[in-house]
Design goal:
Layout (H helix, E strand, L loop, with lengths): L1 H51 L2 H38 L2 H7 L21
Helix pairs in contact: 1-2, 1-3, 2-3
Length: about 120
């Protein structure tokens, strides 16, 4: 009786953890898309500055593009982390325990999604 209750409780917590993982994956994927757009915009603006002969703005925008590409790599690694945490336990056979452990993610604050405005300033 007690074992069945505990199994049901772990299953309920695992569902909450799975939802937390899916939410983190969706937010990280959106962040990755925003970072890719930032890198593209900064690179395009650097090209425009170079064509206009504005070397100072070109150097600033190239630095911003480099930083945006670095942020994009970090976002990609985070997407891969969440995706692996969702996929590997299912195939390994310990999904309930891994997803129950992920329920703690509800307590950790999310990173903001908004793009950084300093990259595309003119």
């Amino acid at each position: 009786m007690l074992e069945e209750s505990l199994t049901g409780l772990v299953t309920l917590i695992a569902v909450a953890g799975g939802a937390a993982l899916v939410g983190r994956l969706v937010r990280s994927t959106a962040r990755l898309a925003l970072r890719a757009a930032e890198a593209t915009a900064a690179t395009g603006l650097a090209d425009v500055s170079a064509r206009n002969g504005d070397l100072t703005a070109m150097m600033e925008r190239r630095a911003a593009a480099k930083e945006a590409r670095r942020d994009r790599r970090g976002a990609l690694l985070l997407v891969l982390l969440w995706l692996l945490w969702l996929v590997i336990p299912v195939f390994a056979g310990w999904a309930r325990e891994a997803f129950a452990l992920a329920a703690v993610l509800w307590l950790i604050p999310n990173q903001p999604l908004r793009p950084r405005l300093d990259i595309v300033k003119q």
